[in-house]
Amino acid sequence: MFSKACEYGIKATIFIAVKSLHDQRVSLKEIAEEIDSPVAFTAKILQLLAKSGIVDSHKGPTGGFQMDRTGIDNVKVYDIVCAIDGDKIFNGCGLGLKQCDAEHPCPVHDKFIGIRENLTTMLQKTSMFELATGLDIGLTQLKR
């Protein structure tokens, strides 16, 4: 459903949120290792997340990535998806066709409207705090 970059972005943000709840910053290398992603690819994803204000990036020997408590509470999965994949999944055609709207619907247009609305609502209501605190089974789940 989401691009690989978006999946990694969600996992990385959850990892950063978990560590931030313990007042810890995490390095690019730690994040890439935890989410099982190539370092260079992870760096590009984190750059998008930082540019969007989802995570904070600090340079230097004590640098790394973190989120403040307000960010952990307020950042929703929807924000991450939009920062990395854009809003195409929320507005585009369910089949990926260029010409699809209410006047010229694709074969699944009407069926996809409800799915899209439910997905949008769920992603807009799911915060990083909820995901970070809900991972009581351990961070290694992020590698899946």
From TrEMBL:
One of its GO terms (cellular component) is cytosol. Transmembrane segments: none annotated. InterPro entries: Tscrpt_reg_Rrf2, WH-like_DNA-bd_sf, WH_DNA-bd_sf. GO terms for molecular function: DNA-binding transcription factor activity. This is Transcriptional regulator, BadM/Rrf2 family. The lineage of its organism: Bacteria, Pseudomonadati, Bacteroidota, Flavobacteriia, Flavobacteriales.
